[in-house]
Design goal:
heterodimer; A: 217 residues; mainly alpha; MetI-like fold; 8 helices; 0% strand; B: 330 residues; alpha/beta; Rossmann fold; CBS-domain; four-stranded antiparallel beta sheet; 41% helix; globular; MetI-like_sf (chain A); Choline ABC transporter permease (chain A); transport (chain A); MetI-like (chain A); membrane (chain A)
Chain lengths: 217, 330
């Protein structure tokens, strides 16, 4: 126990700093993933043919082992002298988040009660009015579930980003493994787990706040 | 007024849902589209606000060919009520009701006034219910909201697709009565889909009976029951329809039209019946007792006359003849 106290005394500022790095990397990736995934998911509800293909590609992306995807990023981004570091890690995380976000958005919009959609059209709503006023609000819980899956997934996968020099909590774990330092490994892992739990709780709060009372459950 | 000119609907060139349908819904009247499922009644209704395209023919709404109008504008000028779940659960009652006025860009003040007026029409407190969400209301209240939502922008024409179909029989009758009372005030031109014969008889100025996309008969309810044009119509309404239609009238109606009979004090042991009882129950009471009269009482219990089988029969003929002459004038 005393050892832990001493370890934390020395390393706490560094752990905190790496946690913040990790959170920034994941948040930025999620924001960009949302900006791509939600509109794409909505668009796919109007294009059945493309929907099958895109969802298939997104599924395949998720099956690529994370370490391999990070590896593939290196030669590609080397072309613009960004082979290691933040950018390739960021792009990989954006790709990983696409499946849960696109799929949940697509499914949520598709599953909006057809009678509700019929009423909206029958009353003379234009497509964008129908989406903004009826379909997206009613699809919100399922879309948010996808976002939460993506965030937790990215916090975990973000650990691997340390291997390509992107920093974050993965640094503690990789260093711990190479040095055989259990304190580093355990503190890194706990920080990742804690970060995932906190992020999920915050998103749940946001979800409840922005979901109509009627749909909260 | 809605006029259908040789309207035909074909799906993918093969199956025909509606065949050469030709009829007019007069200003301020309710026409009920009736028929077995798959007869094309809902398709016909949805062609009016262009939720279904028209393969051949045309639909004229108040002198405008529906094809020439912008679909969005057309729909905003037509009230639309569906069976259930048409209310949006993410919006309050007030937001739900004011959707079309909102789309049309009405001012806040105008919307508020209209909302208060509409809620008064269905007897719900605007302040109390306005802020509630649809699922906090009973099924009957939700359907009332669905009806006034369609009335919100005061459209001349309304389309109602089995609006009361999901309600239990007691609530359904109550809301039908309420709706007829509202209709007497607002006088909309209404196309109403139903598969319930009793509902059609009650609501319709005219019934359009369809089978396999073709018109079987287009007439007033009584004319249809008394003079069915073909075997299908008479079978659809059944042999006992005339008697069943008596349930739509009360002793009071009879009293107002032909008057009650004198009480025969010499007959002992006769039963009494309230003046608001319907004639079908009255008839069965008459048939199930020895005496050939039943004493009619008012709400205070006072005896105001008596009723006999002859009177009921007379009323039945009078009503049917009366409705025939009305339909000929119209």
């Amino acid at each position: 126990m005393e050892d832990w106290v001493r370890f934390l005394e020395i390393n706490a500022p560094r752990i905190l700093e790496l946690t913040i790095d990790h959170a920034i990397l994941v948040s930025l990736a999620i924001i960009v993933a949302l900006l791509i995934g939600v509109p794409l998911g909505i668009y796919l509800t109007t294009n059945e043919y493309l929907a099958g293909t895109v969802l298939q590609v997104a599924s395949v992306t998720l099956t690529i082992p994370s370490i391999a995807l990070f590896g593939v990023m290196i030669p590609i981004f080397s072309l613009i002298n960004q082979g290691i570091g933040f950018l390739p890690a960021f792009v990989a995380l954006v790709l990983y988040s696409q499946l849960p976000i696109i799929r949940n958005t697509y499914t949520a919009i598709k599953n909006v009660n057809p009678e509700m959609r019929d009423a909206a059209i029958g009353m003379g709503m234009k497509t964008h009015q129908r989406l903004l006023r009826v379909e997206i609000p009613n699809a919100m819980p399922v879309i948010m579930a996808g976002v939460r899956t993506a965030v937790v997934l990215n916090i975990g996968i973000g650990v691997i980003a340390a291997y390509i020099g992107a920093g974050g909590l993965g640094v503690l774990i990789t260093q711990g493994i190479s040095r055989g330092d259990n304190y580093l490994i355990i503190s890194g892992s706990l920080a990742v787990a804690l970060l995932a739990i906190i992020a999920d709780a915050i998103l749940l709060m946001i979800q409840k706040r922005f979901t109509a009372k009627s749909l909260a459950n | 007024m809605i006029t259908f000119n040789q309207v035909t609907k074909q799906y993918n060139g093969s199956s025909t849902a509606v065949k050469n349908v030709d009829f007019t819904v007069d200003q301020g009247k309710i026409v009920v589209l009736l028929g077995p499922s798959g007869c094309g009644k809902t398709t016909l209704l949805r062609m009016v606000n262009r939720l279904e395209s028209i393969t051949e023919g045309e639909i004229i709404i108040d002198n405008d060919n529906s094809k020439d109008l912008d679909a969005i504008e057309l729909r905003r000028k037509i009230g639309y009520v569906i069976q259930s779940n048409g209310l949006f659960p993410n919006m309050t009652i007030e937001e739900n009701v004011m959707i079309v006025p909102d789309l049309l860009g009405w001012s806040k003040k105008k919307k508020k006034e209209r909302f208060n007026y509409l809620m008064k029409l269905i007897g719900l407190d605007a302040k109390d219910y306005g802020k509630r969400l649809p699922q906090e209301l009973s099924g009957g209240q939700q359907q009332r909201i669905g009806v006034v939502r369609a009335l919100a922008a005061d459209p001349p024409v309304m389309l109602m697709d089995e609006p009361f179909g999901a309600l239990d029989p007691i609530i359904r009758e109550k809301i039908q009565d309420e709706f007829l009372a509202i209709q007497r005030e607002v006088k909309k031109t209404i196309l109403f889909v139903s598969h319930d014969i009793d509902e059609a008889i009650k609501m319709a100025d005219k019934i359009m009976l369809l089978r396999d996309g073709e018109i079987m008969q287009y007439d007033t309810p009584s004319e249809m029951m008394m003079h069915p044009k073909n075997e299908f119509v008479s079978q659809f309404f059944g042999k006992d329809r005339a008697i069943k239609s008596l349930s739509l009238h009360t002793v009071k109606n009879l009293e107002e039209v032909i008057g009650l009979a004198q009480m025969d004090e010499s007959i002992q042991d006769t039963k009494t019946i309230n003046v608001h009882q319907d004639l079908r129950n009255t008839l069965s009471m008459l048939l199930n007792q020895e005496a050939d009269q039943v004493i009619v009482t008012n709400d205070e219990g006072g005896k105001i006359g008596s009723i006999t089988i002859d009177l009921v029969q007379k009323y039945l003929h009078f009503e049917i003849k009366g409705k025939m002459s009305v339909s000929q004038e119209g």
